[in-house]
Design brief:
Strand order of the largest sheet: 3-17-5-13-14-15-8-9
Helix content: under 10%
Strand content: over 45%
Oligomer: single chain
Structural class: mainly beta
Order of helices and strands: EEEEEEEEEEEEEEEEE
Length: 196
């Protein structure tokens, strides 16, 4: 028995034709095996932030060391992490609540706090999702949109949609993903370039 692997689909035909679906190129992946304060992807990675018009970060089985934390993100400009109050984010939770985070020093990616519960070898609370990002080049404002699926501090099965941007027209040179407090205990994060 043989297996056919498809790396990119350029055209799809059906009742209504869909063309130019593009492809995703895996640029870098980080698997956390011991506690780290953050995961950073920079433009030192081949094709990162200067080749594609859109990028994505997929994260899976990401678990914080501390219980009850926000999933946060910052950008880098010129190789330095920006902590100014130019971030604007909104999070829409599955229970209908909205979190407005305007003029903050970070982006928030969840409404209800992330949990970190385990029971023996079973992980009861972790987070998974995808972040889409665009406008990394100079003279455009960087923006993002995404979703996350996670266990809250009460082991609730939850999902959130989030989006926003950063008020600057400088080139974006890196992305930093970190918990509100503590470290990341485990998980995998992968950066992709999306060829539209």
């Amino acid at each position: 028995m043989s297996t056919l692997k498809v790396n990119a689909i350029q055209n799809i035909s059906g009742g209504s034709d869909v063309t130019g679906t593009g492809s995703w190129k895996k640029l870098s992946s980080t698997t956390i095996s011991s506690n780290v304060s953050d995961v950073t992807f920079t433009n030192s990675i081949t094709d990162a932030f200067d080749t594609y018009k859109m990028y994505a970060i997929a994260f899976t089985q990401l678990q914080p060391t501390n219980d009850g934390v926000e999933l946060r993100m910052r950008i880098q400009e010129g190789g330095s992490t920006d902590t100014s109050n130019n971030y604007r984010a909104r999070v829409f939770s599955s229970d209908g609540n909205i979190s407005n985070n305007l003029n903050k020093d970070h982006l928030r990616l969840n409404k209800d706090a992330l949990g970190n519960a385990t029971s023996g070898s079973a992980v009861l609370e972790d987070t998974n999702g995808i972040i889409y990002m665009t406008n990394f080049v100079a003279n455009r404002e960087w923006r993002y949109y995404g979703f996350g699926m996670f266990g809250t501090v009460s082991q609730d099965r939850n999902f959130d949609n989030f989006g926003g941007g950063f008020a600057s027209t400088n080139a974006t040179t890196g992305i930093v993903i970190f918990p509100e407090s503590g470290s990341w205990a485990s998980g995998t994060l992968t950066l992709y370039g999306i060829d539209l």
